[in-house]
Write a structure and sequence with these properties.
Layout lengths: L9 E2 L10 E2 L6 H9 L5 H8 L3 H13 L1 H23 L8
Antiparallel strand pairs: 1-2
Helix pairs in contact: 1-3, 2-3
Amino acid sequence: MDVIQSIDLITKNPDVRGGKPCVAGTGLRVTDLVMAHLFHKRTADEIATDYNLSLAQVYASLAYYYQHKDELDKDIRQQILTARKAKEEFTGGQPSLLS
C-alpha cells in the first residue's frame, strides 16, 4: 500500500494575503515566487537567496503552481491588471519614467 507523503510548506489562511497560497510562515504568495521565476527569469537558487527561503520552499511553491496552474494563472493575470490600472491612475495616462 502506497502512503502519500505531504510537504507542509504551502498554506492558505483567509487572514493572510486574502487567503492566497503562501509559503508557510511567511506572507510570500506562491504567485510572487512564480512571477520572479517566469517573468524575471530568476532561478530557484536566486529566488531562495532573494527571499531568504530554502530551496525546498521555492520548489514546493513551483510544484504547487504547476499543480494549480489554471487557478494561479488567473490570479497572476488579475495582479497584472490591477498593477496596470494603478499605474494608469498614478500617471494619469501620461507616459512615465516607469514605463
